[in-house]
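Bumping with the actual sequence this time:
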Amino acid sequence: MLHSSRSPAAVVVCQHGDMAKGGTRAIAALGAAGVAFTVHSYEIGNTDLSYGEAAAAALGAAPERVFKTLVATVDGSAVVGIVPVSRRLSMKKLARVAGGKHSTMAEPSDAQRLTGYVVGGISPFGQRRRLRMFIDASAGRYDSIFVSAGRRGVQVEVAPTDLTALTGAEMAAIAE
């Protein structure tokens, strides 16, 4: 259960090119691309939930619609896996769809260096280095999904089709 003295989520709607208060590279990239998106900021108090599940609860969104952005390596090359917070990234499935044999999670310091974002706030948008991305096929079930906006406590709601178009992400069954 979440414990917070503030309302669960404050919603700020951003228009094209609008950085909004406290904007990030991810928000700037979305604005520059001219796609529709909504910025949601929230606070998480003390909870027994995982960070991702607590974020979903704070947003009032189903955990299946809130996606986490994870950096992994496949045969030594960095890739990104984007999966619902209610599920885990399958290393075996990720390696297979990336055309490799072996996959492991990247060290947090490597993930931060490659993306330019802190762990817990890694966004698929506006990364320092463009990495090959895979998003779980379950995202295609929804008109919009939530992904990190590049800072802890801030998510962007965006159409999965816009996410794949802007990042080059491939949809594949990578969650377990």
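The tokens above came from a reply further down the thread. The chain has a mean pLDDT of 87.
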